[in-house]
Amino acid sequence: YTDRTVRNRGGEMLWTPNPHVAIKASFYKYDLERNRLFISLADVVADGTMRASPQVRDDFNNSYTATLTALFDYDIWKTHNTTNLGITQFRDFYLLKQGTFYPLNAAPGVAKDPRPSTSAVATPGFNPLTDPYVDISKLVQTWPSQVATPPWIKNYEDAVYGSHIIELFDGKVGLLFGGRIQTYEVKANPSFNIGNFKNAAWSSDINTLGLSWNINPNIVAFASRSVSFEPNLNTYLISGAGATQAEKSANPSPPVSGVGYDVGFKFGLLDRKLTGQISVFQVSRLNDVAFQVQDLARTQADPRNNDNDPNNNVTWYNPSGKRVSKGAD
Q1: HSE-CB of 300 using CA atoms within 13 angstroms
Q2: Is 287 left (phi over 0), alpha (psi -120 to 50) or beta?
Q3: Which pLDDT tens digit goes with each residue over 8-46?
Q4: What element of type H or E holds 296?
Q5: Which residues make Cβ contacts (< 8 Å) with residue 296, sequence separation at least 6?
Q6: Euclidean distance between CA atoms 327 and 329, whole angstroms
Q7: By C-alpha distance, which of 314, 313, 311 is closest to 103?
Q8: If we measure between CA atoms, which residue out of 319, 227, 223 comes closest to residue 279?
Q9: Residue 231 to residues 107, 202, 243: CA-CA distances in angstroms?
Q10: What is the pTM of this model?
């Protein structure tokens, strides 16, 4: 990184109008400006030539998170109840400005170009084992500040959620249930705040159920089930220098969904000098982007991977399947 500036600010407020009600509001702002100029060394082949990927770019992030929650604590007949209600709004504005480089072996003052070369493209070759370092700034033809400003990308996330705990039989049995409705959108804008174009949106109901039973003062049994959902924002089933934004928008990675279970006991022994927990769990996730598998047939068949230009290659992926984790702790 040649330069990186981060600004964080925000705060929160708590209001308790009476012993049974608490209201909390928070707002946090995050700004990032990052200028990058580098060469990524991907491979050094036997003849000493180097496969390299240079980047000259400026990244900008402006985001904020606003949350409002209300907590109610009260008794109804012989039960004790706790209710939590809340809303959250997240806005992330992202802009990427990319500069350009001189064509291969055309940068003024650069005798040996360290960028990709093939048998079909003549190049003096650059041997990183013997040749001195190249000043990468000499490869830059146009800096990010000199190119037209592209559209801002907006990531929107809104959530409404609530949970309720009811305690029965003098607090010996507790029942938790909750839900969350969450909406995600990715938008491209011709300017910072005007003219939204909707690219993709997802929404989900996320549900949680829990049960606890105080068998005696030293042993508590519990069980829970929860459903999760999250989008794979800004990830796609195609990557590489040759992938266009239209292709990426048409092939987004599907969202991740999951469900988890756990059952166990909490205990306190020897006058609670020894405490612990024993439980079993299972968590399953579908479409985890970290486990995407390359679509080898489609990648090999793509014409961009079969021409003489190594700078327009692409890689296609299949969505990942279900990943299951289970065990005991």
Answers
A1: 3
A2: left
A3: 999 999 999 999 999 999 999 999 999 988 877 555 555
A4: helix 296-301
A5: none
A6: 7
A7: 311
A8: 223
A9: 42, 7, 21
A10: 0.69
